[in-house]
Amino acid sequence: MHPMPEVTFFQNRLGALPITTYEKGETVLSSGSRTGRLLILKSGKVSIAKENVEIAKVDELGAVFGEVSALLDQPHSADVCALEDSQFHIAEAAALIGKDSTALMYIASVLARRLDRANQALIELKRQVQTGQPRSEIGQTVKKIEALLSPAAANLVYAGYPYDPYS
Question: pTM for the full model?
């Protein structure tokens, strides 16, 4: 799969954005806060937790954080913590999304892909429940859905490769 033109353009734009570093153990985003920023993972690894439950660990370059908060104009819905020293490209969400249609298209594309894959996994989960599949199998599908809804799944294409949580 070749990257879509807006993906290539967006990746090229990342080089112009400032970079911020969070040290291991530092909070990157706090649930309930409003930063107005988009963070795009350049290097490192983070943990995402909701209501004190870890839902994902993300080390996928190009993963976007803060996009839902920015688009819905609401506080961040999860805690993001650096598991190791991590670097992020950082952008003011309103400026990037409001003035850059390519960035907006990129973010819309990654969110649409995330939603589509999560919907497919939800259908799989419903079938498993209806047919009485073992709890272990159902549990694996729930983990798949959690991964699909995390920012790791938002990495539509980075360096030309699609993110596939099923692999």
Answer: 0.71
